[in-house]
Amino acid sequence: MLGFIIRPPHQFLSLLLCPGLRIPPLSVLSAQPRPRTMAVSSSSWELPLVAVCQVTSTPDKQQNFKTCAELVREAARLGACLAFLPEAFDFIARDPAETLRLSEPLDGNLLGEYTQLARECGLWLSLGGFHERGQDWEQTQKIYNCHVLLNSKGSVVATYRKTHLCDVEIPGQEPMRESNSTLPGPSLESPVSTPAGKVGLAICYDMRFPELSLALAQAGAEILTYPSAFGSITGPAHWEPVSS
Protein backbone atom coordinates (compact mmCIF):
# COMPACT_ATOMS: atom_id res chain seq x y z
CA MET A 1 0.00 0.00 0.00
CA LEU A 2 1.04 3.60 -0.45
CA GLY A 3 0.13 6.76 1.42
CA PHE A 4 0.22 10.20 -0.17
CA ILE A 5 0.22 13.57 1.52
CA ILE A 6 -0.10 16.43 -0.99
CA ARG A 7 0.67 20.03 -0.09
CA PRO A 8 -1.74 22.68 -1.40
CA PRO A 9 -2.23 23.71 -4.11
CA HIS A 10 -0.45 20.77 -5.77
CA GLN A 11 -2.57 18.33 -7.77
CA PHE A 12 -2.15 15.22 -9.88
CA LEU A 13 -4.28 12.43 -11.30
CA SER A 14 -3.90 8.95 -9.85
CA LEU A 15 -4.88 5.47 -10.93
CA LEU A 16 -4.80 2.30 -8.86
CA LEU A 17 -3.38 -0.81 -10.50
CA CYS A 18 -3.66 -4.29 -9.01
CA PRO A 19 -3.09 -7.71 -10.57
CA GLY A 20 -6.17 -8.48 -12.66
CA LEU A 21 -7.36 -4.85 -12.73
CA ARG A 22 -6.88 -3.25 -16.10
CA ILE A 23 -9.39 -0.38 -16.45
CA PRO A 24 -8.89 1.68 -13.28
CA PRO A 25 -10.98 4.70 -12.31
CA LEU A 26 -9.29 8.09 -12.27
CA SER A 27 -9.25 10.32 -9.24
CA VAL A 28 -7.76 13.70 -8.45
CA LEU A 29 -5.42 13.77 -5.47
CA SER A 30 -5.22 17.30 -4.12
CA ALA A 31 -4.89 19.07 -0.83
CA GLN A 32 -7.53 21.55 -2.08
CA PRO A 33 -9.66 19.80 -4.74
CA ARG A 34 -11.20 22.04 -7.37
CA PRO A 35 -13.91 21.01 -9.84
CA ARG A 36 -12.62 20.55 -13.35
CA THR A 37 -13.62 18.60 -16.40
CA MET A 38 -11.35 15.68 -17.23
CA ALA A 39 -10.99 14.31 -20.72
CA VAL A 40 -10.67 10.55 -21.09
CA SER A 41 -7.73 10.72 -23.48
CA SER A 42 -4.35 10.80 -21.74
CA SER A 43 -3.12 13.30 -24.32
CA SER A 44 -5.64 15.89 -23.07
CA TRP A 45 -5.26 15.45 -19.30
CA GLU A 46 -4.32 18.74 -17.72
CA LEU A 47 -2.64 17.12 -14.71
CA PRO A 48 0.21 14.60 -14.52
CA LEU A 49 -0.91 11.01 -14.12
CA VAL A 50 0.68 8.70 -11.56
CA ALA A 51 0.04 5.00 -10.99
CA VAL A 52 -0.18 3.37 -7.56
CA CYS A 53 0.63 -0.32 -8.00
CA GLN A 54 -0.58 -2.67 -5.27
CA VAL A 55 0.94 -6.14 -5.03
CA THR A 56 1.09 -9.04 -2.58
CA SER A 57 4.75 -9.99 -2.40
CA THR A 58 6.01 -13.52 -1.79
CA PRO A 59 9.50 -15.01 -1.26
CA ASP A 60 9.70 -15.60 -5.04
CA LYS A 61 11.58 -12.54 -6.34
CA GLN A 62 11.17 -13.37 -10.01
CA GLN A 63 7.44 -13.93 -9.71
CA ASN A 64 7.14 -10.66 -7.81
CA PHE A 65 9.08 -8.88 -10.56
CA LYS A 66 6.82 -10.36 -13.21
CA THR A 67 3.74 -9.10 -11.36
CA CYS A 68 5.22 -5.63 -10.81
CA ALA A 69 6.44 -5.39 -14.41
CA GLU A 70 2.94 -6.14 -15.74
CA LEU A 71 1.51 -3.31 -13.64
CA VAL A 72 4.26 -0.89 -14.63
CA ARG A 73 3.74 -1.65 -18.32
CA GLU A 74 0.01 -1.10 -17.87
CA ALA A 75 0.74 2.22 -16.18
CA ALA A 76 2.92 3.26 -19.12
CA ARG A 77 0.21 2.20 -21.59
CA LEU A 78 -2.30 4.40 -19.79
CA GLY A 79 0.03 7.40 -19.93
CA ALA A 80 1.40 7.57 -16.37
CA CYS A 81 4.62 9.52 -15.88
CA LEU A 82 5.44 7.89 -12.53
CA ALA A 83 4.57 4.50 -11.02
CA PHE A 84 4.78 3.77 -7.30
CA LEU A 85 5.48 0.28 -5.94
CA PRO A 86 5.03 -0.55 -2.25
CA GLU A 87 7.45 -1.38 0.52
CA ALA A 88 8.82 -4.92 0.11
CA PHE A 89 7.86 -4.94 -3.57
CA ASP A 90 10.91 -7.16 -4.16
CA PHE A 91 9.88 -9.91 -1.71
CA ILE A 92 8.43 -10.74 1.68
CA ALA A 93 10.28 -13.63 3.28
CA ARG A 94 9.04 -16.26 5.70
CA ASP A 95 11.53 -15.39 8.43
CA PRO A 96 14.42 -12.97 9.15
CA ALA A 97 17.07 -15.45 8.02
CA GLU A 98 15.41 -15.77 4.62
CA THR A 99 15.11 -11.98 4.40
CA LEU A 100 18.85 -11.62 4.77
CA ARG A 101 19.55 -14.46 2.34
CA LEU A 102 17.32 -12.97 -0.39
CA SER A 103 18.58 -9.40 -0.02
CA GLU A 104 20.77 -7.82 -2.72
CA PRO A 105 22.95 -4.74 -3.21
CA LEU A 106 21.67 -1.83 -5.28
CA ASP A 107 23.91 -2.92 -8.15
CA GLY A 108 22.52 -6.47 -8.05
CA ASN A 109 20.52 -8.35 -10.66
CA LEU A 110 17.04 -7.47 -9.39
CA LEU A 111 17.44 -3.70 -9.35
CA GLY A 112 19.08 -4.02 -12.75
CA GLU A 113 15.84 -5.53 -14.04
CA TYR A 114 13.88 -2.58 -12.68
CA THR A 115 16.23 -0.03 -14.24
CA GLN A 116 15.76 -1.79 -17.58
CA LEU A 117 11.98 -1.76 -17.02
CA ALA A 118 12.00 2.01 -16.40
CA ARG A 119 13.93 2.57 -19.63
CA GLU A 120 11.69 0.23 -21.59
CA CYS A 121 8.49 1.92 -20.37
CA GLY A 122 9.86 5.48 -20.34
CA LEU A 123 8.47 6.39 -16.93
CA TRP A 124 9.79 7.08 -13.44
CA LEU A 125 9.62 4.34 -10.80
CA SER A 126 9.34 4.73 -7.05
CA LEU A 127 10.54 1.43 -5.57
CA GLY A 128 9.11 1.80 -2.13
CA GLY A 129 11.22 -0.48 0.02
CA PHE A 130 14.08 -2.55 -1.37
CA HIS A 131 15.91 -5.01 0.92
CA GLU A 132 19.39 -3.57 0.37
CA ARG A 133 22.73 -5.06 1.28
CA GLY A 134 24.75 -1.94 1.94
CA GLN A 135 28.49 -1.43 1.81
CA ASP A 136 28.69 -2.49 5.46
CA TRP A 137 26.98 -5.86 4.86
CA GLU A 138 30.11 -7.93 5.48
CA GLN A 139 30.65 -6.26 8.86
CA THR A 140 27.06 -6.00 10.11
CA GLN A 141 25.17 -8.84 8.38
CA LYS A 142 22.20 -6.46 8.42
CA ILE A 143 20.39 -4.70 5.57
CA TYR A 144 18.70 -1.37 4.84
CA ASN A 145 15.06 -0.77 3.93
CA CYS A 146 15.72 1.45 0.92
CA HIS A 147 13.29 3.60 -1.08
CA VAL A 148 14.80 3.88 -4.57
CA LEU A 149 13.70 6.44 -7.16
CA LEU A 150 14.49 5.75 -10.82
CA ASN A 151 14.02 8.20 -13.66
CA SER A 152 12.66 7.31 -17.10
CA LYS A 153 16.18 6.51 -18.32
CA GLY A 154 16.61 3.91 -15.58
CA SER A 155 19.09 5.96 -13.55
CA VAL A 156 18.95 5.97 -9.75
CA VAL A 157 18.23 9.61 -8.87
CA ALA A 158 17.61 9.17 -5.13
CA THR A 159 17.82 6.60 -2.35
CA TYR A 160 16.36 6.96 1.11
CA ARG A 161 17.08 4.40 3.80
CA LYS A 162 14.32 4.13 6.38
CA THR A 163 15.31 5.91 9.57
CA HIS A 164 12.49 4.79 11.90
CA LEU A 165 12.46 1.01 12.23
CA CYS A 166 9.27 -0.78 13.25
CA ASP A 167 9.96 -2.32 16.66
CA VAL A 168 6.51 -2.71 18.23
CA GLU A 169 4.54 -4.94 20.58
CA ILE A 170 1.25 -6.21 19.11
CA PRO A 171 -1.26 -7.82 21.50
CA GLY A 172 -1.77 -11.49 20.71
CA GLN A 173 1.13 -11.63 18.24
CA GLU A 174 4.88 -12.02 18.27
CA PRO A 175 6.71 -8.68 18.70
CA MET A 176 7.82 -6.97 15.50
CA ARG A 177 11.57 -6.27 15.56
CA GLU A 178 12.67 -4.80 12.27
CA SER A 179 15.94 -3.80 13.92
CA ASN A 180 16.90 -7.48 14.29
CA SER A 181 17.78 -7.59 10.60
CA THR A 182 17.75 -3.96 9.47
CA LEU A 183 19.88 -0.90 10.15
CA PRO A 184 18.39 2.61 10.36
CA GLY A 185 19.35 4.97 7.58
CA PRO A 186 21.73 7.80 8.45
CA SER A 187 19.86 10.76 6.93
CA LEU A 188 16.91 12.14 5.00
CA GLU A 189 16.96 12.56 1.23
CA SER A 190 16.25 15.97 -0.27
CA PRO A 191 12.96 16.16 -2.22
CA VAL A 192 13.34 15.20 -5.87
CA SER A 193 11.79 17.00 -8.85
CA THR A 194 9.78 14.53 -10.95
CA PRO A 195 7.23 14.93 -13.75
CA ALA A 196 4.50 14.66 -11.09
CA GLY A 197 5.98 17.24 -8.73
CA LYS A 198 8.61 17.47 -6.05
CA VAL A 199 8.59 14.16 -4.15
CA GLY A 200 9.72 13.57 -0.58
CA LEU A 201 10.75 10.00 0.20
CA ALA A 202 9.74 8.17 3.37
CA ILE A 203 8.75 4.60 4.23
CA CYS A 204 5.94 3.06 6.25
CA TYR A 205 6.56 3.53 9.99
CA ASP A 206 8.19 6.92 9.29
CA MET A 207 4.67 8.39 9.25
CA ARG A 208 4.63 8.10 13.04
CA PHE A 209 7.26 10.82 13.25
CA PRO A 210 6.00 14.24 12.07
CA GLU A 211 9.44 15.85 12.23
CA LEU A 212 10.43 13.91 9.10
CA SER A 213 7.47 15.14 7.04
CA LEU A 214 7.93 18.69 8.33
CA ALA A 215 11.59 18.65 7.30
CA LEU A 216 10.70 17.38 3.82
CA ALA A 217 7.92 19.96 3.44
CA GLN A 218 10.24 22.77 4.53
CA ALA A 219 12.74 21.53 1.93
CA GLY A 220 10.11 22.00 -0.79
CA ALA A 221 8.37 18.61 -1.07
CA GLU A 222 4.95 18.83 -2.74
CA ILE A 223 4.19 15.12 -2.37
CA LEU A 224 5.14 12.98 0.63
CA THR A 225 5.19 9.23 0.02
CA TYR A 226 4.84 6.42 2.56
CA PRO A 227 5.08 3.09 0.73
CA SER A 228 4.12 0.44 3.26
CA ALA A 229 3.74 -3.24 3.99
CA PHE A 230 1.46 -2.90 6.99
CA GLY A 231 -0.60 -5.84 8.20
CA SER A 232 -4.27 -6.10 9.14
CA ILE A 233 -3.59 -4.72 12.61
CA THR A 234 -0.81 -2.22 12.02
CA GLY A 235 -2.44 -0.80 8.88
CA PRO A 236 -5.59 0.65 10.48
CA ALA A 237 -3.49 1.87 13.43
CA HIS A 238 -1.57 4.12 11.01
CA TRP A 239 -3.71 4.99 7.98
CA GLU A 240 -6.83 5.99 9.90
CA PRO A 241 -5.14 8.46 12.29
CA VAL A 242 -3.13 9.99 9.45
CA SER A 243 -6.12 10.43 7.13
CA SER A 244 -8.46 11.79 9.80
Automatic annotation (TrEMBL):
InterPro entries registered for this protein in UniProt: C-N_Hydrolase, C-N_Hydrolase_sf, UPF0012_CS
Domain CN hydrolase: 47-244
SUPFAM superfamilies: Carbon-nitrogen hydrolase
PANTHER family listed in its UniProt record: DEAMINATED GLUTATHIONE AMIDASE, NITRILASE-RELATED
Name this protein carries in UniProt: Nitrilase 1
